[in-house]
Each structure stands twice: as structure tokens, then as C-alpha cells.
Amino acid sequence: MALDGIVISNIVYELTQKIVGGRIDKIYQPESDEIVLSIRHQKTSYKLLLSSLANMPRIHLTDVPKKNPLNPPNFCMLLRKHIAGGRVIKVIQPHFERIVELYIEHLNDLGDRCIKILIIEIMGRHSNIIFCDEDKRILDSIKHVSANISSVREVLPNRPYAYPPSKDKLDPTEPLTLNAFVENMKEKKAIILKALYFTFNGISPIISEELCYRASINSSSHTEELLLDDYERLYDAFIELIHGIKQEQYIPNIVSLNGQVYEEFSSVPLTSYGSESTITYDSISEVLDAYYAKSSNASRMHQKSSDMKKLVTTNLERCYKKLDLQLKQIKDTEDRDKYKILGELITANIHAIKEGDESLTTVNYYTNEEITIKLKPHLTPSENAAKYYDRYNKLKRTYAALTEHIQDTQSEIDHLESIQNALSFIDAEEDLLLIRQELMEYGYLRFRKNKNKKALEKSKPFHYKTSDGFDIYVGKNNLQNDELTTKVAASLDWWFHTKEVPGSHVIVRTDGKELSDTAFEEAAALAAFYSKANKSSKVAVDYTLKKHIKKPAGSVPGYVIYHTNYSMYVAPSDEKVTLVE
Questions:
Q1: Co-location of 464 and 420 in the same domain
Q2: Which stretches are transmembrane (predicted)?
Q3: Percent of the chain residues past pLDDT 70, beyond the cut
Q4: In this model, does residue 262 exceed pLDDT 90?
């Protein structure tokens, strides 16, 4: 992706056209690193998103709805105090950097007009949203950066704001001669692709590649290898590109592979990809909304679930080690019956054993083979037999206890693996709350009172339709699996689940109709898709009528048993079914 200086300049141009002069109605902070400003201008309402998410920082107008916390964070409250009702008077991009400054005019407590500046720095993991007064003294920031974190610059309240170091890069919008261009490029002593974005602010690797393509230069050529003619063509391509930016001749676009996968985006045509791969838009905000729509939510869910995934993985590793130890211990009890036989043989031949004998040689009447049994010479024959019986009984008790422990450990592994599988498919915070609730109920997380009960109620299973119109419901987690199977499904609905592999419960509603072969195959493919085996080419899926499914009393969420079923092998897929929003 290339949210570079060129895209930023397009965003600033668009914001200047649409929100400058507008008033800030509402301010939200839906995430710890995001701010949404609701701005009304000329009878039109806009939502401006500012995100400092490490791998997807951005600023643009958005139509994507955001859920807001019940209790706004302190940074949000500070913004509301100072700029709610304020008017956006200017939006600038300093020095063609990946920085946007919003100048906001408002009335202070005394009724005097004041200026506040909201700055977003779009710089990967160093991205930040900083709130300053008119003199650019920091009032607060969404991320605090102390001297312990960065020796280059602090971002803390009451500190003067300073721009991030530019590494002596040039502003590409400033006048530049051919000689200066060549001299600066040669100084970098690198391949031409890197030399371009090492020299100029706001030029990304994608734009560097595009400039080389327009100039018919191999981007991997070294700066010292280029001839003067090469530099002249590159300079002309560079000047033409920057001239278009200065004239605000933006063409927001996305490069798409097969119309499905979004490869790159830009505000200038990426001719190196070909026009057939390019989708143009009227607005750069539309581009960013389309590009980040799914990936942003997936990244957010991955970020929020990382602690739970780590917790589940840690507990699974503990269970795997425990199971290995228990299996080794139970293997040591395999020859327990041998000691019972030895005790019996001593008892049967007690008359033939003399005091002080160290062994007994007799025939094992189970195998009709001769056997020599060691004896303790200081013990009587009865005591020797009792010693072997004691060893047998001890191993028998150990075997019984270990068998029960192994079953418990395996059940815990199955439960944790089902949670691990559910965590890989979450697409909403409500689903995450349900999984967190389950982990708390089973002691993996410290219990805490859930204040957001409504969120738990709103979480719903995936709803699909088969190609011939049958409704399919897929549980996103164990609690939903239980709900689907035990309460939602009717007795004549069909139930699907991967065979001996953690996965979602899949219910197909029949409404009294006979299920088609197509529906059976598509439901089974969906069950395989929402399972731990979804990377396999073929997966075994069990299916049966819901009336044959039983849930044992006291069993963990998602655990059921069945004795009447069919099975089929399918390729995991969700392509033939339609997701119902």
C-alpha cells in the first residue's frame, strides 16, 4: 500500500473542498488509536476518521459505521471540551510530509476566539494523533512518547511540538533543476528505486517504480550506472508528476487483481500495472474506505484477540505436555497383570518354597511355559505373594486414575482447540466478548463483571443461503454452537460438523422439506471451511438430523454426542453459498 505524500496531498485537497468552514458536531473515540469527527458543512454531514493504527494509519472521510464505547476515553473528552462546536478553518500538509494538520477555531470559556491544531502523523508504528494549542504546544496525544521510548523526540503534554526528523529529504514541490536532481540522486549511491524515495519527502517505493517505468529505466539500476539521457527522462517524468499534483489533477484509483484482490492504491495512475487492472474513483476517501474496509476490521480483531490467542496457545501447550506425560505413565502400567499372575503362581506353589529361597521355578499354567520368579529370601512365601499382589493392585489403581486423567486432559484439549478455532474466525467485538466470557467461566481468565450485556445479545451466527435457497447457520464460537444446536435447530433440521476436528456447528433449516444433494454438499463444505482443517484439500464431515444430537449434562460448551450419522469428504469452501447480511 502507498499512503504516501501524494495520497496525503489528495486527502488534504478533498478535505479542504468538503469540510473547511464546517462545524464539528460530535467527537468519538471508537478505538484506543482512532478518532472520528462528525462535521457538518453546507447542510451535509461528514465523518472524518483519524487512525494511528500501527499497520493501517490514515485520515479520510468515511461511511463505515463505528461502534463507540459507553465511556469515552480521556483524550476524546479533552477534544470534546476544546473543539466540539468548533469550525475547521484550514487543512494543510507541511513539507509534503505524511502529516495532516487541522486548524480549528473555537470559543474558550471566556468567549474569546481561539485556535487549536489537531495533527495526525502517518508513519507506521510511529503514527500518532496530537492535539496542540495555537503556539503548537502539545495539550495531549493519543499515544504518549517519552524519552525512554524515543531519544529523537518526546510527544508529551506541555512539550513543544516538533516535526519528526526528515533525514534531509527534499520537498518535491519546491523548484528543482536537472543538475540538482542528478546531484542529489547520485549522492545516495543506491539503486534508482531507493534513491528516489531516499531523496524526496512523500515519494513511496510504488511511485518510485512508476517514475522508472514512465522513464523507461530499470528500477534496480544503480545511480552510478545511469547516463545523462536516463536522468533527463527520469527528471522529466518526475517534474510532470509533481506538476500534476500542484495542479490538483488527482485520479484516485485502486489496482485490483482479477477484480477481487486489492493490490495497491494511489492518487495518480499506476501505468506500470496496466489500465485493465485499475479501478478509478471520484474520491480518495472512497478509495481508502474500499481498500481498508475488510483488512482494517480483520487487523483490529487480530490485535484485540492476540492476548486470548496467546492464552489459549499457552494452555494448549501445557495440556499437550501433560497428556504426553500421562501417556508415558500409563504405558508403565501395561504389564500390571504380570504381577497378579506371579502372585498366583507363588500361592499355588507355596508348599514347594523353602525358607531362604531366592527364586521359584515352575510352569506358568496360562502359557504352559517354565518361568522363574524372584523371591525375597527374608520374606515368607505368603509375604512374597502378597508383595506381587500389592504391586498389581497399585498399578491397577494407577491405570484407572490415569485413564480418567487422560480423558479429562483430552477433553480440555478438545475444548481449547475449539476456542482456538473460533478465535480464527471472529469478525466482530461481540464474538470476542462471548469467547472471553467462556474463558472466564472455565477459569482461564480472571472473572470480571461484564458491563456490556447488550453486546453479548447482539452477537449472531453466520447466516448463509445455499445455491438452491436453504438457510444455513454457522456458530462463531462454542456458546453459539450450543445455542444453535440445542435451542435454534428443529428436530428435522440437519446438523454438520467436521469428523474428530475442532470446528463450528452448522445447521441447515429444512422447514419440513427434503434437503437437496447440493445443499448437503454446500453445508458440508461450509463446516469444513469453518474448522481447524480448512487448509486441507479434503475433510471428513459428519452429518445427521438434529434429533440424533445429545448434549451430556455438565459438558463444556459446544460438546455434543451422536451415534447415528452419515459422513462425506469435501473440500473446504464458502464460495457456493451466499452470506446473508
A1: no
A2: none
A3: 96
A4: no
Residues 76/63, Cβ–Cβ less than 8 Å = no
pLDDT of 512-538, one tens digit each?
899 999 999 999 999 999 999 999 999
Banded pLDDT at 56 (limits 50, 70, 90): confident
Q: Which domain holds residue 278?
A: 178-285
Distance CA 345, CA 367 (A): 12
- The x, y and z cell numbers of residue 309, run together, are 490467542
Is the four-CA dihedral 411, 332, 325, 327 of positive or negative sign? negative
Predicted TM-score (pTM) of the model is: 0.68
Give dist(CA 137, CA 148) in Å, integer. 20
One domain for residues 464 and 415: no
Please report, as a single letter, which amino acid is at residue 136: K
- Residues constituting the chain: 581
Q: Where are the beta strands (DSSP E) in 108-170?
A: 113-121, 128-133, 138-141
Helical ranges in 189-283 per DSSP H: 192-199, 205-214, 228-246
Total number of domains constituting the chain: 4
Asked if the structure places residue 507 within a domain, the reply is: yes
454 pLDDT above the threshold of 50? no
- DSSP H helices, 42-103, are 74-83
Pairwise CA distance, residues 362 & 351, whole Å? 12
Task: Please say if the pLDDT value at position 541 is more than 70.
Answer: yes
Q: Which of 87, 118, 141 is the last residue of a domain?
A: 141
Place of cell 444433494: 517
Q: Let me know the angle formed at the C-alpha of 350 by 348 and 354, rounded to the nearest 5 degrees.
A: 150
Q: In the Cβ-directed half-sphere of 395, how many Cα atoms lie within 13 Å?
A: 18
Helix (H) or strand (E) holding 151: none
Q: Is residue 297 part of a domain?
A: no
Res 448: pLDDT: 63
Alpha-carbon gap, residue 315 to 320, rounded angstroms:
9
- In the numeric block, which cell numbers belong to residue 515? 434437503
Is residue 438 domain-resident? no
pLDDT digits (tens, 9 = 90+) for 272-282: 888 778 889 99
Q: Are 139 and 78 a contacting pair, CB within 8 Å? A: yes
